[in-house]
Predict the 3D structure of the following.
Amino acid sequence: MLSVIISHDIACERREELKTHWRVVCRIAGESVENLLKKEPSAVEPKQSNLLLDNTEKREARIDEMRQKLAKSGHRITPQRLCILEALTQTSAHPSAEEIFADVHRVCPTTSLATIYKTLQTLKDMDEIIELEFSDGSNRYDGLRPKSHPHMICTRCGKIEDVEIEGLSNLEERAASKSGFRVDHYRIDFYGICGDCK
């Protein structure tokens, strides 16, 4: 039986790290935080992390979807991998491998940058993430929407946001029809200055 006790005398920052670790432990056990807390009355109820954006249920479902695909393809579900999945889905900002490493390293300090890159490559090969490649090598990753979609990219701060454009699937079909190609994926980026940098 899993038991995680969060001491009340731990500093707030450390307490937040343990809450994230608690979510990872729950994913390994295949149970929700609420179910494990019912079994472990000595554990302090974890609070919602400020890192998670809206649509927490959607993000949790996305993590579970990636976790199940990894398991089905024979990959071990390690705490490090679960932390990577969490980092990929906790933000819509399209993090770099280095940003993912910084987030994961806080919770799982034994994780190496090589582990981050290997896991990202595995997820990319499984079509579970999109890698946005840039000529300067500052590649970014999208774990929330693994299918091709357009992005807005700020030329000043580097912010990347998803953008919805109606009729894009029609454009994909027309391109395939005119060229005779089977379209596997596409990339459409719009460059400009974001609202924060104006």
About this structure: Confidence is low (pLDDT under 50) at residues 1-18, 36-54.
